[in-house]
Amino acid sequence: MKKLTKQQKSNLITLAMVVCFYLICEIFIRTGLMSSHLKGLLVPLTYYAIAAVGLNLCVGILGELSLGHAGFMCIGAFSSSIFSVMTRDALPTVPRFILAFIIGVAMTALLGFLIGIPVLRLNGDYLAIVTLAFGEIIKNILNAVYMGVDDKGLHLSLKDAASMGLDASTGKKIINGAMGITGTPSDSNFTIAIIILLVSLIIVQNLVQSRDGRAIMSIRDNRIAAESTGINVTKYKMLAFTISAAIAGAAGVLFSHNISTLTAQGIYFGYNASIMLLVYVVLGGIGNIRGSVIAAMILYVLPELLRGMDKYRMLIYSIVLIVMMLFNWSPKAIEFRQNHLSKFSKRFRKEAAR
Amino acid sequence: MRHMLKKSIALVLVMAMAGMTLAGCGESNAPEGESASGEAVFKIGAIGPSTGGAAAYGTAVKNGAQIAVDEINAAGGINGYMIEYKFEDDEHNAEKSVNAYNTLKDWGMQMLDGTTTSAPCLAVAEKTKADNMFQLTPSGSSLECTQYDNVFRVCFSDPAQGTKSAEYIGSKKLATKIGVIYDSSDPYSAGIYETFAAEAPNQGLEIVSAEAFNSDNKTDFSSQIGKAKDAGAELIFLPIYYTEASLILQQANQIGYQPMFFGCDGLDGILGVENFDTSLAEGVMLLTPFAADAQDNLTKNFVNAYKDAYGETPIQFAADSYDAIYAMEAALEAANATPDMSVSELCEAIKGQMTKIKVVGLTGTITWSSDGEPNKEPKGVRIENGQYVSMD
Q1: Is the ipTM, as predicted for this complex, more than 0.85?
Q2: Which chain B residues are Cβ-neighbours of A38 within 8 angstroms?
Q3: Considering its fold, how many domains does chain B have in total?
Q4: Are A306 and B21 inside 8 Å of each other by CB?
């Protein structure tokens, strides 16, 4: 058998950690030891981990800042949800969810691709600006759109629900303006979420290790040098950005099929939600895929576990963010980790030094 | 030495946090229908935003219910059993709301007074339906909130407010040319507008201008006001919250446009806006089920208790929540329920009684129909000399 490289070993450890997490949770659920509160958190924390993995591909591996990943989640959520609501009675659960998933991911990838065409040709921080605007535009459009279906076909309106002219008996509202979509079937569950997390991890890890991945990282490290060796910069940027958007879209599909109401409000898909994802990535370590997963899970669960502290929980949460950032990034803390933790394990030193 | 210090501080912090989380778990694991000390109690949970932009509403619901619970407990409880009450924050976020619901379930909640806002209410209603838990939302006004038979509400639904407003304007012959300014990004506002527009022709009203704004753009209303003025609107219908309404009143005054203004319960609170010249609100009409300066004893006592405990005047959400707790009390007493019944049994028992009880509450005398909607009369009030005066 071929000997595994260090990178491959590290990748396998990440996958094994996710699988172990899944098994432990399943054992707790089966034996009834897990509270319903924690059970309810499992799917959300998994899809935020997925979104963080997607964003880390863009920010950490490609080196382009995106502030619109919540917008991509929004597209995945709405496109898949529209499909699921329309076919709720026509298709059985399994094929319906698979198709909804494919539609959600494909739509997001398409829009990521379209945005990438003009923006990724440019140098500098343009992607951050454009994705920021994109996220807000998507949110505002979806807040204004009314969509319904009756036996004559689809009806769209930007004014109000009455102006769609739906047939009273057969008509069904799908997107009801700012009230969004209601009645999406709850098709996602923890097992599906973990499978999608594993798939996205494998995709990103393999991409990073491949020839394409090395090309992408060379663009991040030095664009001019990469270009001079004959690497098609725009093509590789588009590749990484589209995959990154598609993974965020997958997280969006899980989002919309986890709770039955979907509104395009700022708290779920706005600027702040994108920053939240960025916080997961930065605190987990930019370019460190495993770190993103762990940080997303911890940071999502933390404010929930602090519920016992009532109104102080948001205060504590922000303090934890600051402490984590200092621990991860301040030179003194890195020095401290190198000097002290290395006594316990050689592996830590290697990782810290990397 | 310094490292030792850092290490010990870190250790202390970690232990403190672990301790708190464990403490949180510990108190949450009492079984249903039993307090931490083992007595039989009814456990009522409540959910709403107590942090974030909508915090005022969640806090009002929390405090209003607390006052009702304290009163009932002081008077001997429900069927002789005390009530235990717990509120969880949902940040006006459907996802967090489901988390809050699960937390309350771990605590042993048997009935839910919630959720405060509509979108989270829809998500939580899916869960209470699955668990067959009785849910009475004080202020979830979106139509779909009560689509399941275990969910009832205290406030009017959005469509009901729109229809009732149109009926009121039509039957009182206030005006025939109506301008509307509404918030298209807010389900509450858009929902009222939609049914208002549908009912208006039946009442002989003509909507001459319907202008929307959204949550990102709600400080300058000059174009919306100008369009209403150009279209010759005699009355401007404002199905919005009071903050924006106060700006609209100011800006209309600046251009010397003085139509009648008519609003819904969202306008309740307009007299309390800081730096707002309340003389501009003179003559504004609103439909509201609750006015904090009403002179009946029930309202007076409630407002005084609320001011004593929390130092502010209660808004309509607090009154709705107060009534919700009393509705549960009435239904539980009518059903002779005891805390040892399961969540599902309690739900069936309360559901059976909800359509039969009649609650004399802060927001009027309420009865319920089996689709979960309350029947109560909206009160039309007009602002005169800085006071609400009944128009009926």
Answers
A1: no
A2: 102
A3: 2
A4: yes
Task: From A127, A142, A209, select the one nearest A180 (Cα to Cα).
Answer: A142
Interface check A212 vs B, CB under 8 A: no
Q: Specify the amino acid at residue A211.
A: R
Q: Which of B103, B141, B213 to substitute to test the interface with A, most A CBs within 10 Å?
A: B103
Alpha helices in B29-173 (DSSP H): 55-74, 94-107, 118-131, 158-171
Chain A from 303 to 332: CB within 8 A of any B CB: 304-309, 311, 313-314, 316, 323
Whether pLDDT at B83 is above 70 = yes
Indicate if B269 and B167 belong to the same structural domain: yes
Torsion sign over Cα A6, A19, A200, A280: negative
DSSP assignment letter at A58: I
Q: Does B93 contact A179 at a Cβ distance shorter than 8 Å?
A: no
pLDDT at B114: 83
Look at B3 and A37 and tell me if their CB atoms are within 8 Å.
no
Cβ-nearest to B184 among A162, A178, A258: A178
A312: chain B residues, CB-CB within 8 Å: none
Across B107-216, where does the E strand assignment appear?
A: 111-113, 134-137, 151-153, 177-183, 206-213
With contact defined as beta carbons under 8 Å apart, do B255 and B222 qualify?
Answer: yes
- Could you read off the pLDDT of A20-32 as tens digits, one per residue? 999 999 999 998 8
Task: Please tell me which of the candidates B24, B100, B194 has its beta carbon nearest to residue A160.
Answer: B194
The structure tokens 């805390």 sit at B339
Q: B276 is in which domain, residue-wise?
A: 159-288
Using alpha carbons, list the distances in angstroms from residue B201 to A160, B157, B167, B195.
17, 21, 10, 11
Number of H helices, E strands in chain B: 11, 15
- Return all residues near A321 (Cβ < 8 A) that are at least 6 apart: A279, A283, A299
Decide if B123 is inside a domain.
yes
Provide the pairing of β-strand B387-390 with B379-384. Answer: antiparallel
Helices A289-305/A36-56 angle, 10° precision: 150
**B209-242 confidence digits (pLDDT tens):** 988 887 777 788 988 899 998 998 999 999 988 8
Select from B190, B254, B246 the least CA-distant residue to B222.
B254
Report the pLDDT averaged over residues A47-67.
94
Domain of residue B224, CATH code: 3.40.50.2300
Same domain, B165 and B255: yes
The pTM (predicted TM-score) of the whole model is 0.80
Q: What is the CATH number of domain A11-30+37-143+184-353?
A: 1.10.3470
Residues B166 and B283 reside in one and the same domain: yes
Token representation of residue B65: 């219910």
Question: What tokens does B366 get?
Answer: 């309420």
- If one counts every other C-beta atom within 10 angstroms of the C-beta of residue A161, the result is 23
Distance CA A200, CA B183 (A): 39
A82-140 confidence digits (pLDDT tens)? 999 999 888 899 999 999 999 999 999 999 999 999 999 888 788 899 999 999 999 88
Q: Residue B171 and residue B96: Cα distance in Å, rounded? A: 43
Peptide bond into B115 cis (omega under 30): yes
Going by pLDDT thresholds of 50, 70 and 90, the confidence category of residue B8 is low
Handedness of CA B128, B314, B380, B239 (dihedral sign): negative
- For B235, the 3-state DSSP assignment is strand
Place of tokens 């997963």: A293
CA dihedral (A286, A291, A297, A303) in degrees, to 10, reads: -60
Of B256, B288, B320, which residue is a domain's last? B288
Size of interface A-B (CB pairs under 8 A): 117
Distance of alpha carbon B267 from alpha carbon B265, whole angstroms:
5
Rounded to an integer, what distance in angstroms lies between the CA atom of residue B41 and that of residue B338? 8
Give domain limits for chain A: 11-30+37-143+184-353
